[in-house]
Amino acid sequence: MARILGGVTSSHIPAVGNAIANGLTQEPYWKRFFDGYGPAQKWLDEVKPDLAIVVYNDHGLNFFLDKVPTFALGCADVYPNEDEGWGLKPVAPFKGDAELSWHIAESLVEQEIDICMCQEMLVDHGFVNPIRALWGTHENWPIKAIPLAVNTVQHPVPTAARCLKLGRALRKAVESYPEDMKIVILGTGGLSHQLQGERAGLINVEFDLECMEKIATDPEWMTQFSNAEIMEKAGTEGIESIMWLVMRGALQDDAKIIHKHYHAPISNTGAGVLVLENQY
Q1: Any catalytic annotation for residue 193?
Q2: How far apart are the C-alpha atoms of 187 and 257, rounded to whole Å?
Q3: Tell me, what CATH number does 137's domain have?
Q4: How far apart are the first and last CA of the chain?
């Protein structure tokens, strides 16, 4: 059967793609941020997953504010990248696995998780930048990938508890797939940041560090907070941290912490890298 090897978290801010594209990753402003990915890259090279399920939020490339699904799953064999307004050159398309995607979709619906199935899907910086930070940039990507979009843009957005439940349902879906396949889950976005209003530029280092520790060791902790409380502590865009809970829910309860790294500020954001490994 398919196995989930573990999960990795990553910021997905547009500036990451710009730094990679322009060779700035070892400049003083960026070096510590990108150095935090070294142990994650090493772990991925050792365990060699066949496919990544990337939990991210769409930034208007597929869904505008008039129609925003709470959860949307790519069910295609290819996912093109297009510029959504940052002026970055699109990277090569990503290979998917439609057969696995449809299996996941059917299993999620059977578990009473309503999912929007997308037979065509474009991927933006939220999906692309974590892959580039972890695997580099390629004309032929070394891993297949499936996008799983979570609405963190148009309110109402799902709760932390709902995202944790989605992750647990995702684990059951993947582990019921009969093909032998090694899978890693990427939880992207966050941590604390706010892009507009009187609190623009907010970063809450103390809350970020607590979130990283608790998501790794006690993910139920985060479900005590309403979305309003999370945004009060972490900023309006800090709500993206609920996507880390999808990743965490998809792992075993006793998943081992392999690596933990935090850096702030980077593009007005608190950024964290976690590597969690399932214990088979």
Answers
A1: yes
A2: 15
A3: 3.40.830.10
A4: 13
Choose the catalytic residue: 59, 103, 193, 263: 193
Catalytic-role residue among 125, 259, 261, 263: 125
Q: What is the mean pLDDT of the chain?
A: 96
Average pLDDT over residues 182-202: 95
In which domain, by residue range, is 26 found?
3-277
Distance (Å, whole) CA 97 – CA 75: 7
Q: What is the domain count for the chain?
A: 1
Q: Is 259 a catalytic residue?
A: no
pTM recorded for the entire structure: 0.97
Query: How do residues 39-87 score in pLDDT, each as one tens digit?
Result: 999 999 999 999 999 999 999 999 999 999 999 999 999 999 998 777 8
